[in-house]
Amino acid sequence: MPEATDEPGKEPRAQPGHGGEGTADVDGDVEVEVEMLVNGETHTMRVDPRVTLLDALREHVGLTGPKKGCDLGQCGACTVLLDRRRVTSCLTFAVMHRGREVTTIEGLVGPDGALHPMQQAFVDHDAFQCGFCTPGQIMSAVALTDEGHAGGPDEIREWMSGNLCRCAAYPNILDAVIAATAGTAGSAAAPTTTTTTRER
Amino acid sequence: MRSFTYARPHDLTQLWREHGPDAAYIAGGTNLVDLMKCGVATPQRVVDIGALPLGGIELDGDKLHVGALATNSDLAAHPLVVRHLPMLAQALLSGASPQLRNLATLGGNLMQRTRCGYFRDIAMPCNKREPGAGCAAMDGSHHGHAVLGTSEHCIATHPSDLAVALVALDAQVSVAGPNGARVVPADAFHLPPGDRPDRETQLAAGELILGVAIPLEAAGAHSCYVKVRERASYAFALASAAVGLDVRDGTIRDARVALGGVATTPWRARAAERVLVGSAPGPAVFGRAADAAAEGARPLRDNAYKVELIRRVVTRALTTLPDAPPPAAPGPLSGEPT
């Protein structure tokens, strides 16, 4: 599809808003204050209302794990957990999510620096080539596990379909998710090793 | 992206005060933010309805009331939807991706704009975006465009799966504005393009969808949604069918057939339903219903395949329906269907 992506901040400044009688939660200023709990830490920032959740995380909090792939909600590289549910952070404004909890790929690492089991599985199964989609893939895979959708290869493929991999590392991504979620889902018994599936 | 001011009212009184000319409501943002990035939507003011108490999914008598802010994920997973409205659950889960469904809301889904590439490209003429500008799709790339409900001014397809199920289920849309509330049948909520493709719904300026009421009926309980797309998942429909049958004593008493991906609005195929009602279910009547569903189709150079696809997707949906009777309805519905 023909697209144009504008960078925030390259256009005239926002005009002062109307409203703001104090009854509604209104910000008529150019910038608005946004406080979020990101990976367990409270972050307060002043942002233009145009700033997406993705740009807030990358440019204001300084977390570059969430990637800007298509910036259109089509690729899933920007996937983060918002109140523990996975979302495309490029398609929603940061100002809409004040006071909420966000988890990025950086927040998966344990306090001792140990990789999350899903991260380790991606390493073990070489589940990437260029690595650009990987943070989004892992965040979706972690969410998929919590949602109970790791019931087997077909179910995992369907529930990972919002994360595209331009390098087409899908077979190894699938192997990693199967390995990391073995025993977590109710239905199909996922294999614990990948010796057979990796031959594809 | 053009700059805008932002408000987040907590009740409808505040909402009406915050809304005004060139304002847009936002819920999840999955469609509006996208359109604002590509310059198609240019509101001066964005009114965030996320704090309004419109997220509920509740049974009231024989109707399921769904608030406008219910997410696609929550609605698809709701036990009453899974059990009594399978076509709705299936339609929801066939749309978008898990991380989009977690943001996307019922109201936003009904208000989403077409994915016609010319509509999204502000360098191209589009009657929907700019009335009178012309339609680049007529002679352009239109293999995904509509064959039903089109006009000489617009052939853009309505992209929703959810809305197709809602029109099949006789859902009623509750809307409210500064001057009061009203109810619009889902089947009449979206407007065919005619000579004003820019007018897409019955909503007046400032009006907001509060929710929908979905009757829980036998034809909805014995139903399914079949969607054909260019890849196995995460794509808009080339053609889809929501069908439901109430079969008693070997005769179809009630039938619902609605189409997605082939029409300018979520498309109720009443001619197909008339063929089905009164007959015994079977391949012959299913085939006649499928033909009736495609009646009136006006294909263009590159989308004639959709006419046959309508027939096949309706046939497949009707033959996919399980033979087993649907589960008993909850609460007051558990008696004999009327």
Order of helices and strands of chain A: EEEHEEEHHHH
Beta-strand percentage range of chain A: 5-15%
Describe the biggest sheet of chain B? 5 strands, antiparallel
**Separate helix tally of chain B:** 14
What integer is the average pLDDT of chain A?
83
User: Low-confidence parts of chain B lasting 5 or more residues at pLDDT below 50?
Assistant: 332-338
CATH topology of the domain at 219-320 in chain B: Enolase-like, domain 1
Number of strands of chain B: 12
The best one-word shape of chain B is globular
Work out the helicity level of chain B: 25-40%
Q: Assign the CATH superfamily of the domain at 219-320 in chain B.
A: CO dehydrogenase flavoprotein, C-terminal domain
Short note summarizing the structure:
Helices cover 25% and strands 14% of the residues of chain A. Chain A has a five-stranded mixed beta sheet with strand order 3-2-6-4-5, sandwiched between helices. In chain A, a hairpin with a 2-residue loop joins strand 4 and strand 5.
What features would you describe in this structure?
The complex is a heterodimer of chains A (200) and B (338). Chain A is α+β, with helices and mostly antiparallel strands and 200 residues long. Helices cover 25% and strands 14% of the residues of chain A. Chain A has 5 helices and 6 strands. Chain A has a 5-stranded mixed sheet with strand order 3-2-6-4-5, with helices on both faces. Chain A is globular, with a radius of gyration of 19 Å. Among the domains of chain B are: 5-50, Uridine Diphospho-n-acetylenolpyruvylglucosamine Reductase, domain 2 (2-Layer Sandwich); 219-320, 2-Layer Sandwich (Enolase-like, domain 1), CATH 3.30.390.50. In chain B, helix 12 packs antiparallel against helix 13. The radius of gyration of chain B is 20 Å and the shape is globular. The N and C termini of chain B lie far apart (53 Å). The model of chain B is unreliable at 332-338 (pLDDT under 50). Chains A and B meet through strand 1, strand 5, helix 3 and helix 4 of A and strand 1, helix 1, helix 2, strand 3 and helix 6 of B. Strand 1 (25-27) of chain A pairs antiparallel with strand 1 of chain B, so a sheet runs across the interface. Chain B: InterPro entries: CO_DH_flav_C (IPR005107), CO_DH_flav_C_dom_sf (IPR036683), Diverse_Substr_Oxidored (IPR051312), FAD-bd_PCMH (IPR016166), FAD-bd_PCMH-like_sf (IPR036318), FAD-bd_PCMH_sub1 (IPR016167), FAD-bd_PCMH_sub2 (IPR016169), Mopterin_DH_FAD-bd (IPR002346). Chain B: Keywords: Oxidoreductase. Chain B: It holds the Pfam family CO_deh_flav_C. Chain B: Residues 1-219 form the FAD-binding PCMH-type domain. Chain B: This is Xanthine dehydrogenase family protein subunit M.
